[in-house]
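Reminder to self: C-alpha cells first, then the designed residues, so the page reads top to bottom the way the pipeline ran.
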C-alpha cells in the first residue's frame, strides 16, 4: 500500500547523480539535499546510519544528521 508519493523531477529519473534528496515526513515536501561521493542504487537505514548500496558486498554509510561518510559495512 502506498501512503504518500512524490514525483521526481525528470532530470533525476534514470540519471546517475551523487545527490540525496531530503523530504519532510509530514508534508513529503523536499526540504534539502546532500551530496555523497559514492555511486549507489538506493539508500536505506538501520536506525543509526544511512546505508548506500551499489550491488557490491560493501554498503557505504553516512551519518543521518550531517550526511558525512562514517565508514563502510561489509555484507556477508
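Designed residues (76 positions):
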Amino acid at each position: 500500500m502506498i501512503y504518500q508519493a512524490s514525483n521526481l523531477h525528470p532530470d533525476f529519473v534514470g540519471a546517475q547523480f551523487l545527490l540525496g534528496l531530503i523530504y519532510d515526513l509530514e508534508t513529503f515536501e523536499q526540504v534539502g539535499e546532500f551530496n555523497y561521493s559514492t555511486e549507489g542504487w538506493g539508500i536505506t537505514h538501520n536506525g543509526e546510519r544511512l546505508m548506500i548500496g551499489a550491488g557490491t558486498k560493501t554498503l557505504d554509510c553516512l551519518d543521518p544528521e550531517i550526511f558525512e561518510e562514517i565508514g563502510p559495512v561489509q555484507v556477508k
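The two ends are 31 Å apart (CA to CA).
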